[in-house]
């Protein structure tokens, strides 16, 4: 499989803190130099700053041992939650039950517990057995949760389905909202400077929110007077851009907003996304050869 070195660019759209490593993974996976990574972060993680939110975080941190289970929806949630705990707990209570959506989130929990010197005293579940909300909710440990008090650590408004279904199973849910997700202010300028090509460039996104931000940036790039509030309209000239998405739910979102070339990864793990990127590149090269 050969082409002009670097002719295909893979847009690295993750938050800045994760994007450098993601760029490296993209290029290491590209043994034949068929593509290169193009960093354009489309998501920014901003800690909550309101006084009401801070007071709620304090209450939840101090009541840590009141929860039967503590769920984390992302690595960012893990980082921000344990940073908050440092102000209130010199040592964590024993036998807490932490659950992470996805293997990287589970590993982030374990790393934090190692840093606290108490990994052996805690229960950590999830990971490869819970790569998305649906898989997490299928775990045996989350079937009989009647009257259990469960804390869901997330960004503002994230993954509402988790709480809704657990409430339907009888759990008492609290949300620990640790950060907001936003579109980086410089994203439109960075995209314009990159001179994106809707035919040869490929954009993997790890969430529906990143996909929405992609549409917003493309709309603003095409028309500086475009609305800055959703719903955003995908300009016709960008409908041919190849997007790689983490599962059928985000694929349906991509189809609904107008993308015509959609590659679907098994889940949002980097290995699954890289495999889908490779398949998308191969399909593009095969089509271009004819």
From TrEMBL:
Family membership: Belongs to the uroporphyrinogen-III synthase family.
Protein name per the record: Uroporphyrinogen-III synthase
Organism: Saccharophagus degradans (strain 2-40 / ATCC 43961 / DSM 17024)
Associated pathway: Porphyrin-containing compound metabolism; protoporphyrin-IX biosynthesis; coproporphyrinogen-III from 5-aminolevulinate: step 3/4
Domain Tetrapyrrole biosynthesis uroporphyrinogen III synthase: 35-274
An example molecular function term from Gene Ontology annotations: uroporphyrinogen-III synthase activity
E.C. designation(s): 4.2.1.75
Keywords: Lyase, Porphyrin biosynthesis
Domain of life of the native organism: Bacteria
Reaction catalysed by this enzyme: hydroxymethylbilane = uroporphyrinogen III + H2O
Record Pfam families: HEM4
């Amino acid at each position: 499989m050969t082409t002009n070195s670097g002719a295909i660019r893979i847009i690295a759209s993750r938050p800045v803190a994760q994007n450098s490593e993601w760029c490296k993974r993209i290029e290491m996976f590209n043994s034949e130099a068929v593509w290169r990574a193009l960093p354009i972060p489309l998501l920014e993680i901003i800690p909550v700053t309101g006084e009401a939110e801070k007071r709620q975080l304090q209450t939840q941190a101090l009541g840590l041992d009141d929860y039967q289970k503590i769920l984390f929806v992302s690595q960012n949630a893990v980082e921000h939650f344990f940073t908050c705990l440092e102000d209130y707990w010199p040592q964590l209570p024993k036998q807490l039950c932490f659950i992470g959506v996805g293997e990287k989130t589970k590993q982030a929990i374990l790393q934090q517990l190692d840093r606290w010197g108490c990994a052996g005293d805690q229960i950590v579940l999830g990971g490869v057995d819970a790569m998305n909300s649906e898989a997490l909710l299928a775990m045996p440990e989350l079937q009989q949760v009647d009257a259990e008090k469960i804390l869901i650590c997330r960004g503002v408004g994230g993954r509402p389905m988790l709480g809704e279904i657990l409430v339907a199973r009888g759990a008492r849910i609290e949300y620990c909202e640790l950060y907001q997700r936003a579109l980086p202010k410089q994203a439109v300028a960075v995209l314009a400077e990159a001179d994106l090509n809707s035919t040869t460039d490929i954009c993997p996104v790890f969430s529906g929110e990143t996909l929405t931000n992609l549409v917003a940036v493309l709309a603003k790039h095409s028309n500086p007077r475009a609305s800055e509030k959703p719903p955003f309209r995908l300009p016709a000239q960008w409908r041919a851009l190849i997007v790689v998405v983490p599962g059928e739910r985000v694929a349906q979102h991509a189809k609904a907003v107008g993308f015509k070339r959609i590659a679907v990864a098994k889940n949002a793990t980097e290995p699954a996304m890289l495999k889908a990127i490779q398949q998308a590149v191969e399909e593009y090269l095969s089509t271009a050869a004819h």
